[in-house]
Design goal:
single chain, alpha/beta, 7 strands, binds nicotinamide-adenine-dinucleotide
Length: 263
């Protein structure tokens, strides 16, 4: 699955799933434009890719700001000549219910997770058109398909991301632009480390996450990035508007397993 001659824009590419996607894409010949607000991590990921012989640029942006995203995407197109795919991995997690979520938190989460994905799509789609088509992959979550307690804004943003994905898929299908979503279970990234650090016993969060997945573990970032990269590649040429879970069986499981030696 080579990407020679292709350029991919990756939001949230400095760390976690986005970083793993950037590394795989660069290993397979793509030029990668890393868009992220973490200047240090973004520069480090970019340098690591270049040291390994890959092609990458880093643009510091807040994905919630369309002007910043638009300018960065234009610079990427000018640097590499064209844009063929977009991966949206920038995201934040905040906790609260319908009562405890503040308006500030609501805006923060929806601005980054949902408006950020729209901003990236509207900046990149004109370039995908110029290239004669392309692919958009939005990293959503199992929380787009189910929910947990205390994650109101996050779960709404991830449900919304499926709507954005499907709308784009329908609006641009005739221009050979595909849009798909990936819904990961728990992944071992800085986001998970941050979430676990909110618990007095962070290790217990990791243990609980491992136990709840039928595969008995959490994912490595590359295991999710491989699915993302496939959908960004022309190998997935007839796949659009779809939602791919990569959740170690999490959403397949129903509780209440009988305690018996027969299985
Ligand atoms: N880690 C998990 O268990 C998990 C599970 C399901 C879905 N996801 C989703 O996958 C995506 C990637 O998550 P991750 O675990 O790799 O997170 P992460 O925090 O490790 O990485 C996210 C990246 O996005 C960047 N970012 C955040 N807000 C930004 C903004 N406003 N502008 C620009 N960059 C911004 C961060 O700097 C970071 O580099 C997120 O959308 C997340 O919701 C993660």
């Amino acid at each position: 699955m080579r990407f020679d001659g292709k350029t991919v824009v990756v939001t949230g590419g400095a760390l976690g799933i986005g970083q793993a996607a950037c590394e795989i894409l660069a290993e397979r010949g793509a030029s990668v434009a890393i868009l992220d607000w973490d200047e240090k991590a973004g520069a480090e990921t970019c340098e690591k890719i270049k040291q390994a012989g890959g092609k990458a640029i880093f643009e510091q942006v807040n994905v919630a700001d369309f002007e910043q995203v638009g300018n960065a995407v234009e610079r990427a197109a000018r640097t590499f000549g064209a844009i063929h795919s977009l991966v949206v991995s920038a995201g934040i997690q905040r906790y609260g219910t319908a009562v405890t979520t503040s308006e500030k938190q609501w805006n923060e989460v929806l601005d980054v997770n949902l408006k950020g994905a729209w901003n990236a799509a509207r900046a990149v789609i004109p370039f995908l058109r110029e290239a004669g088509g392309g692919a958009i992959v939005n990293v959503s979550s199992v929380q787009a398909l189910a929910s947990q307690q205390n994650v109101l804004a996050y779960t709404i943003s991830k449900h919304g991301l499926l709507g954005l994905t499907r709308s784009i898929a329908m609006d641009f299908a005739r221009e050979n632009i595909r849009a798909n979503a990936v819904c990961p279970g728990t992944v071992d990234t800085p986001m998970l480390k941050w979430a676990a650090s909110l618990d007095p016993n962070p290790q217990s969060v990791y243990d609980a996450c491992r136990a709840m997945h039928p595969l008995g573990r959490i994912a490595a970032p590359r295991e999710i990035a491989e699915v993302v990269v496939f959908l960004a590649h022309e190998s997935a040429s007839f796949v659009t508007g779809s939602v791919w879970t990569a959740d170690g069986g999490l959403l397949t499981q129903i509780g209440g397993v009988p305690q018996t030696d027969a299985i």
